Amino acid sequence: MVALALATSLLWGLADFGGGLLTRRMPALTVVVVSQALAAAVLGAVVLATGAWSEAGARLWFAVAAGLIGPVAMLFFYRALALGPMGVVSPLVATAVVVPVGVALALGERPGPVQYLGFLVAFGGVVLAGGPQAGGAAVRRRTLGYTVGAAFGFGAVLALIAEASTSVTGLFLALFVQRVCNVLAGGAALWAGARRGTPVLPDGGVAAVREALPSLTFVGLADVAANATYALAARIGPVTVAAVLASLYPVVTALAARGVLRERLRAAQSLGAGLALAGTLLLASG
């Protein structure tokens, strides 16, 4: 379970970094729709190959709900990444872990004392890793609004997708349904935006989108794989532990931004990353 949850944080961290970079070159909604459409195509092939259609049932409504909420959360998140430093936005969005953890506690799940301590340390580290930096006041308020919306949406998706299936093949089907709903909801918003005259293509038009297809494919598939590993981790072990470990992805995003974009980490952010890792060890040993 620990390995799956940590794999989730790695995949999400890399997907967030890639999505944030793409959003600086093309409209956020275009990134969401194209990357999720590519992911849906791959998942459709997996569903056909594994015969996952036989797992269809009432639980798929959880996947439908996650698929309708997901594009809005991703749009808010990518816009926040485009407006503010990735090393700040990503850790703050990771507070989404409060939603699935709260649901698990409400349903009666009770971690041990060491895991409670690990949860507090890791969560505090994730928030602290956000650091005190930001741009001007106007950008800060707008970025914060997008960040809060993304955090709540992602937390709801985590809670819903964990309930959407009871088997591995059922998980493939649930993820496919979720992505199809992502594309339908995001595509409708993209079409509505185009009708209002909102730019839906980057500079360079379709050719620029075609050139970015490898990166868009990576973002879409990494996000799908992260959802899958999280759902499996939540099924194997306590949801409270799996959710907190999976929420460590901002450390990956911040390190990628530091290495590629040369974004500077302040002392508070470095301390937060260290606390997040310490909390991980406590959660894994509890």
Automatic annotation (TrEMBL):
Q: Which residues form the EamA domain?
A: 2-129, 149-283
Question: Which of UniProt's keywords are assigned here?
Answer: Membrane, Transmembrane, Transmembrane helix
SUPFAM superfamilies per the record?
Multidrug resistance efflux transporter EmrE
Give the residue spans that cross the bilayer: 27-48, 60-81, 87-107, 114-131, 143-162, 169-192, 212-232, 239-261
Instruction: Specify the superkingdom.
Output: Bacteria
On whether Membrane is a keyword of this UniProt record, the answer is: yes
* Cited InterPro entries: EamA_dom (IPR000620), EmrE-like (IPR037185)
**Pfam families xref list:** EamA
Q: Which family does it belong to?
A: Belongs to the EamA transporter family.
Write the protein's name: EamA family transporter
Species of provenance: Streptomyces boetiae
